[in-house]
Amino acid sequence: MSTDAVAVIGFVSLFVLMLLRVPVGMAMGLVGVSGFAYLVNGTAALKLVGQTSMRTVTDYTFGVIPMFLLMGSFVSHSGMSRELFRAANGFVGHLRGGLGIATVGACGGFAAICGSSVATAATFSAVAYPEMRRFGYPQSFATGVIAAGGTLGAMLPPSTVLAVYGIITEQDIGKLFIAGIIPGLLAMTMYMITIFLIGYFRPDFLPKGKMLPWRERFAGLKDIWAPVLLFVFVIGGLYGLPFLPRFTPTEAGGVGAAGAFIIGVVTGRLDREKILASLLQATRTAAAVFTVLIGALIFGYFLTVTQTPQKVTEFLTGLGLGPYGVLALIMVMYLVLGCLMDAMAMIILTVPIIFPVITHLGFDPIWFGVIIVMTVELGLIHPPVGMNVFVIKSVVKDVSFSTIFKGVIPFVATDLIRLLILIAFPLLATWLPTRMMAN
Predict the structure, then answer these.
(1) Cβ neighbours of residue 258 closer than 8 Å, sequence gap 6 or more
(2) How far apart, in whole angstroms, are the C-alpha atoms of residue 324 and residue 2?
């Protein structure tokens, strides 16, 4: 049997296993081992499993994932989200749609010290949704804002998705984190503008909140010193700010986790029960991510033997569409896959195949990482999968899926516009990393 036929059978088998709800990491590992054993031999396949597993869990670079997951877990359990929401609401809550704008701002602040879209969406479903409903915001709008705001966790550093992309493609994770800052801030700004425009054209749809005195507004700022300090120290160390020591991404994760722990304990936000819950949550999540990574690496070795990446590169570049035509084709593929697959699984499965095409066409790999994460953000909120939508539904049980999906429509449109802006102006993603290397 030809290697092409084996590769096709491998992909079909993988999708069948996923449809049967076999965990993604296990499915990729099983197909990869079976295919490698068929094309090489069984002994080599078994050695591949052992060596890949050991190398992955002991690799220093891979330590960035559990460290930032632990940092996010401490932050999530310490209740910093409420202070962020209260401070943001103090400044914009009196505007029409101000609670929605405050939610987006607080989501951005929380995402910048958490790094998880799912955790951000779950946290603000409990923090912001009751407030928006109390002031008369429609269910669809309130849940749509939280779903969209939650996606900021995929872009703003320390993003777990960007870290995984960096590991798979062997790109500098620190540069990827820094590259996500401007696109992440752009996302926040465009979401806020979207909410403002909805309130402007539909004044009956979004009520105004209470205007607070300036003294109370600035008083709210003193409560957010912890997340601001944590973000500046971790990301400033990555960027190489002159008043901070320079960190590698793994060191930054360790510093962030230690900092979140110390702040939580000193301020009394983390007790023994919350510390244990944080450790357990981070361990479970890290184990799940590493299982998927190991499976993906094994599956990647199988694809290398079949020469699938090279053949896909030859096929796409031979279509005569030009670099941006091929890029458009890839983006459409990702948008379709985003409707069907989990975001992390989609990246781990497709990037090893698509990345050689991107480098062959001369695109910047750091910029492409940001573009990929933006498509992942879309997949987090649009039907039928929409992981953030399922998370919100699990917290806010009296809202239907159709209501939440209705609320995210304006933000999906906003994300598509932002995607086009980033494609047209790559400097938005590459300028800060270039400055970082210059420093």
Answers:
(1) none
(2) 32
N- to C-terminal Cα separation, the chain: 53
Report the candidate in 72, 73, 52, 48 with the shortest Cα–Cα distance to residue 62.
52
Q: Extract long-range pairs of 261-266: CB within 8 Å, 24+ residues apart.
A: 261/74, 263/78, 263/226, 263/229, 263/230, 264/74, 264/77, 264/78
Cβ density class 121-149: b for 16+ within 10 Å, e for less = bbbbbebbbebbbeeebbbbbbbbbbbbb
- The residue behind tokens 């949550």 is 281
Picking from 255, 98, 265, 240, the residue whose alpha carbon sits closest to that of residue 175 is 240
Enter the pTM of the model. 0.84
Q: List pLDDT tens digits, range 70-129.
A: 888 888 888 777 778 777 777 776 778 888 888 898 888 888 877 778 778 888 888 888
Provide long-range contacts, Cβ within 8 A and 24+ apart, for 232-237: 233/259, 234/71, 234/113, 234/158, 234/259, 235/112, 235/157, 235/158, 235/177, 235/178, 235/181
Spatial separation of the C-alpha atoms in residues 102 and 108, rounded to whole Å: 10
pLDDT in tens, 378-390: 877 877 767 788 8
On whether the CB atoms of residues 161 and 177 are closer than 8 A, the answer is: no
Q: Where are the domains of the chain?
A: 1-58+287-306, 59-270+307-438
Tokens of 55: 């190398």
Identify whether the C-beta of residue 281 lies closer than 8 Å to the C-beta of residue 71: no
pLDDT number for residue 113: 78
